Amino acid sequence: MNAQKRYEIFSRLRDHNPTPTTELHWQTPFELLTAVLLSAQATDVGVNKATARLFPVANTPQGILDLGIDGLKDKIKTIGLYNSKADNLMKTCHLLLERHGGEVPDTREALEALPGVGRKTANVILNTAFGQPTMAVDTHIFRVANRTRIAPGKNVLEVEQKLMRHVPKDFLHDAHHWLILHGRYTCVARKPRCGSCVIEDLCEYKDKTEIE
User: Which EC number(s) does the record attach to this protein (predicted)?
Assistant: First the structure.
């Protein structure tokens, strides 16, 4: 895929959705960090239901610690893996208070030093909370990047590096949101909805469907 085609793809995605953002509900960097930590192997809808119970009573590191591990688990027990997620969140809150004055850090190194925070989570925080041009490659982005041939790769790191290299700078800040949403609602896993896709004629996927 050449640079001109990539530019046209992202131009259309921007025209279709000029201000994309995460579907997780958050108001502060800590709320976003909490929501992303809870989102592993869970839907954004499910996480939003849990944080709607959690954030009104505890939406700061100290608030979570004051809630206690049992209180935290009770608020998020509807989410899969809630026991381990609660443990990681409690440990993260301790470190945020000890090392960062209760604030979420804005560097990859500091974020990835927090329990439960890997490269993808750090990329989400850096991009969505702090406006840095990062690419948080999840299963949706991995699929779309390979299927369309925008940035094919054998693993998520390879896809991330290719996207950072090939996505035009004009679109880099919002690109991962466009790709996630495109993979979630149009370029779905089993039967992509090629018939209603705004980039169908630019996509290099060989097994296109007529589904809308």
Answer: 4.2.99.18
Is residue 54 classed exposed, middle or buried when 0-12, 13-18 and 19+ CB atoms within 10 A define those classes? buried
> What pTM value is reported for the model?
0.87
Tokens at residue 168, please?
């035009």
Dist CA 1 CA 204 (whole Å): 8
Active site residues: 120, 138
- CA-CA distance, 139 to 179, in Å (whole number)? 10
Mark residue 2 as left, alpha or beta (left: phi above 0; alpha: psi -120 to 50; beta: remaining).
Answer: beta
Q: Which residue has the higher pLDDT, 202 or 211?
A: 202
- pLDDT in the model for residue 211: 81
In this structure, are residues 204 and 148 in contact, taking their beta carbons and an 8 Å threshold?
Answer: yes
Residue ranges at the known binding site for [4Fe-4S] cluster: 187, 194, 197, 203
Cite the DSSP H helix spans in the chain: 3-16, 29-38, 44-54, 61-76, 82-100, 108-112, 119-124, 139-148, 156-166, 175-185
How many whole angstroms separate alpha carbon 168 and alpha carbon 10?
A: 8
pLDDT in tens, 16-65: 999 998 899 999 999 999 999 999 888 999 999 999 999 999 999 999 99
Residue 186 makes CB contacts below 8 A (sequence gap 6+) with 192, 193, 196, 197, 198
